[in-house]
Amino acid sequence: MSLSVAPIAPADHAQRAERVSRRVTRWMTAIALLSAPLCLLWALIRDPGPVWRAQYFGNTDLAGAAFVRSERELGVYWDERHPTVEGSTIAGHNLSMRWDTCLQLDQPREIPFQLVSDGSASFSVDGQEQLHLDDEQNRGARGDVLRLAAGAHRLLVEMSSVSWGSLALNASFDGRAPRALGSREKIVGVRLRYPAAADPVCP
Q1: Mean pLDDT (the chain, rounded)
Q2: Are strands 75-78 and 120-125 parallel, antiparallel or unpaired?
Q3: Is there a smaller number of Cβ atoms within 10 Å at the N or the C end of the chain?
Q4: CA dist., res. 114 & res. 128, Å (int)
């Protein structure tokens, strides 16, 4: 007994190929759509968000009610346009500011810090002043290499300015040139976090 197989018409080949193509396209689209939220989720997990608590005062004495906001790095600039804080504009002259964050180290480190300012400014670690600039009119810079023990350290920067200006706290943890200290630090064993009221070291 012989079996006869009917030949597949060219039209059937074309239909099968089209169905396979549509199926592959659907799978590729699903994978592409799935990868986007996964990449976004991974970025959110890796990004600590703002790490500096910033307070802006409408006077040069760090006194009275302050405009408070969160900032990613300590590298700020303002001019005649005046800084805007939480939807409110404060004068770009005769003002003072305070920033603080919590630095967590897994081991002792020698860290170069540099303070650059257009006004009077100071940088303190754990309540001890380390760098100071006292010229209200001109830009100045101070730097030093500080040896910090493992654990949490509160970093505090204060500044007063009688005119437009800028301020930056630069640091280096990996031997490269110091840069504005903020969220972009991705060094193993180094972490910046926003101060929390429940944190006894960095409240």
Answers
A1: 80
A2: unpaired
A3: N
A4: 16
